[in-house]
Design brief:
The complex is a heterotrimer of chains A (237), B (359) and C (371).
Chain A: H1 16-31, H2 44-50, E1 57-60, H3 69-73, E2 79-85, H4 97-102, E3 104-111, H5 120-124, E4 130-132, E5 147-148, E6 154-155, E7 169-173, H6 183-187, E8 193-202, E9 205-212, H7 222-226, E10 232-236
Parallel strand pairs in A: 1-6
Antiparallel strand pairs in A: 1-4, 2-3, 3-5, 7-10, 8-9
Chain B: E1 4-8, E2 20-26, E3 29-36, H1 44-48, H2 53-61, H3 68-83, H4 89-118, H5 121-142, E4 151-152, E5 155-156, H6 164-177, H7 179-187, H8 190-196, H9 204-209, H10 215-218, H11 226-229, H12 250-274, E6 289-297, E7 302-310, E8 317-321, H13 323-328, H14 330-335, H15 340-350, H16 354-358
Antiparallel strand pairs in B: 1-2, 2-3, 4-5, 6-7, 7-8
Helix pairs in contact in B: 2-3, 3-4, 4-5, 4-12, 4-15, 5-6, 6-12, 12-15
Chain C: H1 4-27, H2 32-40, H3 43-81, H4 104-114, H5 125-141, H6 160-168, H7 171-181, H8 185-216, H9 221-230, H10 239-252, H11 277-302, H12 313-332, H13 340-368
Classes of the chains: A alpha+beta (237), B alpha+beta (359), C mainly alpha (371).
């Protein structure tokens, strides 16, 4: 065994040095201990840090366009989309044609019991509707209380027109198989699809094919998902 | 000699996690040891096969909650190598800062666990107190205290807030001021030296043969640190030194770990000074093909991630090489001939984290 | 100075007076009662009663009032030492959350009483039950001979010091008993360690007192203190013996640098592992009582007992013993745990020679004629 040649702590090390170390801490702790009485007290510095914390979610309903991207990127499948009935005069129309006809909006609700607060939802939100508040005291007595519905998460901020394609994919059309059913145009949350007459003919009429406005497409993939003939595929930009 | 097998675990104060260390004792001397792992197996590697590349990052965080950032970072590095993308310079610096903050936090957690191992509960509370400040800094950086989900394939999640450098330097200064306290409390304490010096000797040859990595290897006079030997990010541009100790006993492993904390502080200072401005993220390909492996210096040793992509949204296979799993192989070798009381110190200096060991 | 015997005798006389009057009253019709009343008022009976009351006062003081204070001091102090707030349970009738925590120990005790007393299946039941009782009784019994002041003492024994050391030495037997009877590997190792350690530290403990006995020329604790009042506190000339005694008593009490018999990280809770409920509570409390006994013993032997200006002697004694107790607590929470072989090495190789040296020093002082 290698015999170590180290600085020996000496006689002082038996008791005196450790006692000196703890004595200082004791003296500083006598008046002001480091711990705080959590629910009753708070430290200013810690509160300041909290504003960057990824706590409970809130959804700005005026920004949200119901694109379902959040539920798609969520690693734990804790986000469910709910159709909520709203009045006709709902301020920002940013919802699909279909929803506007039925006077509903598609808004996410979160099951906190499954959420791991990774922040992917807010990261991939194309409009910045997802907000993380600094609320962390979310414990409750029942599992049902942990499921937050869309109404419970609602806040109303400022509507924006800004759309960012964070998923970085765009739909591509295969004109051969398109049947011109217009479902994609009706369901597109940003209304970037207009139907224009295509090359193929049916009963002497040209079949209407979707045309994408890629400047406002967010790559959410709703169109590709609902396409009955699978003629839309998502491709990377 | 009668055989007495003692179960140190799965529910035992010695085990920092959930594993069983069966030891055969003759009186108080350990004759044989047999670590039994697998109580915490969650099938992380299989879970990765049905998640897409972004969703794996939070999962990798949970391999080891004490040092989560290093794991998600290792995964991101491997994925980047597979996809063949180069990340922006600022993102590299941000990653280094986050990694080193995490490393200090992890080492402080180790110190906190090591304190009660040698019977000094006071060290636990002091170390946890300091760790809190480093977690604060990580929170300021990424928005979460423990499982940060901060690195991304192709960069980092978000930029640091403008007040971060100032606050971070304040924390580092505070931590430097506490250096004296730890020296007096542990290094200068004769009883602490009695407990650690000459205990748990692992020779350089044994360490290399057993595949031991990290601080356990560096404590045995083997200066291998992947941050310099296989440099990633910007470690080779920063000014710091690999910490080595010559003797190979528990005290050298202890000194390697503690010195690494101060060295990490030095790295953070350097990185904060040198950090350029610019973008923090590039776009990764969605459905990559190829395979890559990447090893990084985790807080406990050499973390390796091997990843195969076959053009799908999720990887075909992902393999995690846990440093502690390999270090555990050395435990029966080190333990032989020591007493039960030494077992704690030896296991303490190996710094067991069962989350990453059992995967 | 409080005359413990006088007070007890007074209480007994007053109480028996009332009883005797009542008995006399009934004696008009039932004649034997008169004889009983006469017997009760005899000096011998009153003496016996006074001794019983003395013991009761001492037990109440040591195991309730004093115990709560020292438990509070320790828990609060090491809380602050570790940069925490320590115990802070508020008083029941107060609404605020920042209490002093004085009643926390009471609450803990109440909790322990409610817990089930589990006896392991294969344990030796009788031995398992008797071990905590032995520890607690011997711990309290020490205070029979410790004088809080010249008159505040239950029994002024001529060989009081021998009695105290003998009583303190019974505990390792109970520790071994508990460790063996629990039928558990951890407790067995803990018990063996406990026995080995306590036996090793008995010797320096006793040897360290020899110097004091030499200087004082008496085994009676009261005499020792009086001798210190005449000359000087023996802690000053016999500083070596004081240090040896302090280390030995800390080891004897299984406190932290030497708490290997119940090293919680390696042996779960050592020989206490299988104990639960109030049995555990009793042993745990006995540890504090023994610690205070150690502090009181140091005060008597080395720090001049109750001698001090202005304040009454009992207060001085308590102040001194609490200071010693605080020093013990302070070292407890700033030193790591030693290993069993190192503990024995310290005991046999360092402390015994030092203790012998202190005897030589004391002998030299005596020979020169300074004491």
């Amino acid at each position: 065994m290698a015999k170590a040649k180290r600085r020996s702590p000496g006689v002082k090390g038996w008791v005196i040095q450790p006692l000196r170390a703890t004595f200082r801490e004791t003296m500083s702790a006598l008046l002001k201990p480091e711990t705080i009485l959590y629910p009753y007290e708070s430290k200013e510095e810690r509160d300041e840090l909290r504003k960057y914390f990824r706590g409970q979610h809130r959804i700005d309903w005026l920004k949200c366009i119901g694109c379902q991207l959040c539920s798609r990127v969520c690693p734990n499948d804790c986000i469910t989309m709910e159709k909520v009935k709203v009045g006709e005069d709902y301020q920002e129309p940013s919802r699909s044609e279909m929803d506007e006809k039925k006077n509903v909006v598609l808004r996410p609700g979160v099951n906190i019991g499954r959420c791991l607060f990774c922040g992917n939802c807010s990261e991939y939100c194309p409009t910045g509707a997802w907000v993380h508040t600094s609320v962390v005291e979310l414990a409750d007595f029942s599992r049902d209380a942990l499921v937050f519905t869309a109404e419970q998460l609602k806040i109303e901020g400022k509507p924006t027109k800004e759309l960012k394609n964070r998923i970085e994919e765009n739909p591509k059309l295969d004109e051969e198989t398109c049947i011109g059913c217009k479902r994609c145009a009706r369901e597109c949350p940003t209304r970037c699809i207009v139907m224009i007459p295509g090359k193929k003919m049916r009963k002497d009429k040209p079949i209407e094919n979707p045309k994408f406005d890629y400047s406002i497409c967010i790559g959410c993939g709703t169109c590709a998902e609902i396409c009955p003939s699978d003629s839309l595929t998502m491709e990377e930009i | 000699m009668t055989d007495i097998w003692i179960n140190m675990g799965p529910q035992h104060p010695m085990t920092h996690g959930l594993f069983n260390l069966r030891i055969r004792v003759d009186g108080e001397t350990i004759v044989d040891a047999d670590p039994i792992l697998g109580y915490l197996h969650r099938g992380v590697e299989k879970l990765c096969e049905r998640r897409d590349y972004t969703q794996i990052i939070p999962l990798m965080d949970r391999l080891c909650y004490v040092s989560s950032l290093t794991w998600s970072h290792a995964y991101c590095l491997a994925a980047e190598e597979m996809m063949g993308i180069e990340i922006p310079e600022r993102a590299k610096y941000l990653r280094v800062i986050a990694l080193e903050l995490q490393r200090v936090a992890s080492h402080l957690m180790w110190l906190a666990a090591f304190g009660p191992d040698v019977g000094l509960i006071t060290a636990l509370l002091y170390a946890m107190r300091e760790r809190e400040y480093f977690l604060d800094m990580l929170q300021l950086m990424s928005g979460a205290r423990m499982n940060q989900n901060y690195p991304r394939i192709g960069g980092v999640r978000n930029d640091i807030p403008p007040e971060f450098p100032h606050k971070c330097l304040k924390v580092l200064d505070y931590f430097d001021g506490k250096r004296k306290l730890y020296r007096r409390l542990l290094d200068d304490s004769a009883i602490f030296m009695m407990r650690t010096e000459g205990v748990g000797y692992l020779s350089k040859e044994d360490a290399m043969n057993l595949g031991v990595t990290g601080q356990t290897l560096r404590g045995s006079n083997c200066p291998i640190d992947l941050r310099t030997h296989d440099p990633y990010e910007v470690y080779d541009e920063l000014d710091w030194e690999v910490q080595v100790a010559k003797e190979g006993d528990c005290y050298s492993r202890y000194t390697v770990r503690t010195n690494e904390m101060w060295e990490s502080c030095k790295i953070i200072r350097g990185a904060l000074k040198k950090m350029p401005k610019g973008p923090i993220r590039v776009k990764p390909p969605k459905r990559p093909k190829g395979q890559a492996f990447r090893r990084t210096e985790d807080s406990r040793g050499e973390a390796l991630i091997y990843i195969i992509g076959e053009g799908g949204e999720s990887p075909y296979r992902l393999k995690v090489r846990s440093p502690v799993f390999a270090n555990m192989r050395a435990v029966p070798v080190i333990l032989k001939g020591h007493t039960i009381a030494d077992l704690l110190v030896i296991m303490g200096t190996i710094d067991v984290c069962i989350g990453e060991t059992d995967k | 100075m409080i005359d413990l015997y006088g007070i007890s005798y007074g209480i007994g006389e007053w109480f028996m007076g009332i009883v005797a009057v009542i008995l006399d009253f009934f004696g008009q019709w039932i004649t034997p009662f008169q004889g009983l009343a006469d017997w009760l008022m005899r000096v011998e009976t009153l003496n016996l009663l006074a001794i019983l009351i003395e013991v009761m006062i001492m037990v109440v003081f040591v195991s309730i009032i004093n115990l709560f204070i020292i438990m509070w001091i320790e828990r609060k102090m090491y809380g602050r030492l570790q940069d925490r707030r320590g115990i802070m349970l508020p008083l029941p009738f107060r609404k605020i959350q920042k209490g002093t925590g004085f009643l926390q120990n009471l609450a803990d005790g109440m909790k322990l009483i409610q817990k089930e007393n589990i006896t392991p299946k294969n344990a030796d039941k009788w031995m398992f039950d008797i071990a905590p009782a032995i520890i607690v009784t011997t711990s309290v019994l020490v205070f029979v001979a410790i004088p809080f002041s010249e008159t505040f003492v239950v029994a002024e024994l001529e060989g009081g010091l021998i009695f105290i050391l003998a009583i303190l030495a019974i505990a390792p037997f109970a520790v071994l008993l508990a460790g063996w009877a629990s039928n558990n590997k951890y407790t067995l190792i803990g018990g063996m360690r406990g026995a080995a350690q306590m036996l090793a530290y008995e010797i320096p403990l006793i040897l360290a007192t020899v110097g004091v006995i030499l200087l004082a020329g008496s085994l009676n604790p009261v005499e020792i203190v009086l001798a210190q009042q005449r000359t000087i506190w023996y802690g000053i000339p016999l500083i070596l013996a004081l240090l040896v005694f302090l280390v030995a008593i800390v080891a004897e009490l299984e406190r932290l640098p030497f708490d290997i018999p119940e090293a919680e990280a390696e042996l779960v809770e050592g020989w206490l592992t299988e104990y639960s409920g109030m049995r555990f509570g009793l042993v745990f409390v006995a540890k504090w009582v023994r610690t205070y006994a150690g502090a009181a013993l140091i005060t008597v032997l080395f720090l001049g007992g109750w001698s001090g200006p202005i304040l009454p002697g009992e207060i001085w004694f308590i102040i001194k013993s609490y200071i010693v107790f605080i020093i013990i607590v302070w070292t407890t929470w700033s030193l790591p745990r030693t290993r069993i072989d190192q503990v024995l090495n310290i005991g046999w190789k360092r402390l015994i020679p030092l203790a012998l040296l202190s005897i030589v020093i004391a002998a030299v002082f005596k020979w020169v004629g300074w004491f």
